[in-house]
Amino acid sequence: MKSIPVLLMGCGGVGRDLLQHILTCRSLHAQQGLALRVVGVCDAKSLIAVSDDDLLIAQLTDPFLKEICRFKASSPSAPLSDLKTFDECVIYTTESAEKVVEIASNLGRSTGLVVVDCTASAETIGILTRVVDLDTIPHIQSFTSFALDSYLVGAGLPVITSLNRILASGDYVRCMIGSLSGTLGYVMSEVADGKPFSAVVKEAKSLGYTEPDPRDDLSGMDVARKVESLYPDKMGPGKMSLEDFLGSGLPLLDEDVEERIKAASLRGNVLRYVCIITDSSCGVGIQEVPKDSALGRSKGSDNVLEIYSRCYNKLPLVIQGAGAGNDTTAAGVLADIIDLQDLFSS
Ligand SMILES: NC(=O)C1=CN([C@@H]2O[C@H](COP(=O)(O)OP(=O)(O)OC[C@H]3O[C@@H](n4cnc5c(N)ncnc54)[C@H](OP(=O)(O)O)[C@@H]3O)[C@@H](O)[C@H]2O)C=CC1
Ligand SMILES: N[C@@H](CC=O)C(=O)O
């Protein structure tokens, strides 16, 4: 049985679903000769991990992982260190970020990195840069090759894998057109059905589709980051509190959105928030697309990506499916973890 140590950074919607998936897949993984061994879980303020001495053999028990999920779901703002019951483990508070790097470093050559953080914030980039610079984790030095599908694009959809296969075959990608925001896909299709913009944005937030601050989705920043991550390097690119925005800001936008939807509909179109990437340009924004196109037919939080290449010339390769949501995103992360271990076996 191959044992894969997992250190989970972040125990919000996606992190908890990942733990649940790991527990649910225990027997499936056993049939594949694998065992995922969760050695630590952290949130923004604390880290719970097996002791350094036991790092290569021990794990947090399944009942304890369930308790972690239950606790964070019922008290999301409370740190993990406030848990009432603990496994045999060590709790770190102030120095938890340093400790995460140390544990990863101690796990040595078996360490890989699966990233699902779309924020591309200075903090995230700072952590990734440190990890890449860390000589003691050789497999992470070229982390981009280990950052598989869950890395930024399409939640669990096989977007990056498919693109890599096309490029590896020598095919030439000339254009990609996509709706890469689950939130904006959901918002656009729901407002077209006549619901107020403000109510739909709040629904998207409660369904776990949006970024913690939905303005990251509404501004196009989340899509722009994904476009950047889909494209080669050469194409590389507040005044109101969140509460006020959700409470009084959003409803002010309802009327304008409703008018734009009506005007598009008179032309047989619907509005979609799309990105268009060619070999000389890349842009994101609201566009009218025909109702009966792949993009126009998309519903709910689906992401759609049309890839035009030499092989997929007149009719594009279309990748479509849920592009946001804790369950599907966590499933993509789990698949990436399993894929990663293949790289270490050689
Ligand atoms: N939900 C979705 O559909 C998708 C989400 N993503 C990405 O996944 C990430 C997580 O999303 P989601 O679970 O919805 O977000 P949540 O806000 O529900 O959870 C975020 C978690 O990360 C923890 N955290 C924040 N900062 C740090 C830090 N410095 N060190 C360790 N942990 C930290 C938070 O801790 P605390 O509990 O203490 O606040 C919290 O547990 C986001 O970056 C998002 O962009 C990607 C694709 C789809
Ligand atoms: N907010 C994103 C989900 C995570 O990336 C989206 O709506 O697509």
Automatic annotation (TrEMBL):
This protein's record includes keyword Amino-acid biosynthesis: yes
Signal peptide: none
Listed cofactors: a metal cation
PROSITE patterns tied to this protein: HOMOSER_DHGENASE
Pathway the protein acts in: Amino-acid biosynthesis; L-methionine biosynthesis via de novo pathway; L-homoserine from L-aspartate: step 3/3; Amino-acid biosynthesis; L-threonine biosynthesis; L-threonine from L-aspartate: step 3/5
Domain of life: Eukaryota
Entry-linked InterPro entries: Bifunc_Aspkin/hSer_DH, HDH_cat, HDH_CS, NAD(P)-bd_dom_sf
Pfam family, one: Homoserine_dh
Reaction it catalyzes: L-homoserine + NADP(+) = L-aspartate 4-semialdehyde + NADPH + H(+)
Keyword field: Amino-acid biosynthesis, Methionine biosynthesis, NADP, Oxidoreductase, Threonine biosynthesis
EC number(s) from the headed UniProt entry: 1.1.1.3
Biological process terms in GO annotation: methionine biosynthetic process; threonine biosynthetic process
Gene Ontology molecular functions: homoserine dehydrogenase activity
SUPFAM superfamilies xrefs: Glyceraldehyde-3-phosphate dehydrogenase-like, C-terminal domain (SSF55347), NAD(P)-binding Rossmann-fold domains (SSF51735)
Residues covered by the Homoserine dehydrogenase catalytic domain: 158-338
Protein family according to the UniProt entry: Belongs to the homoserine dehydrogenase family.
Protein name: Homoserine dehydrogenase
Naturally occurring in which organism (per UniProt): Stephania japonica
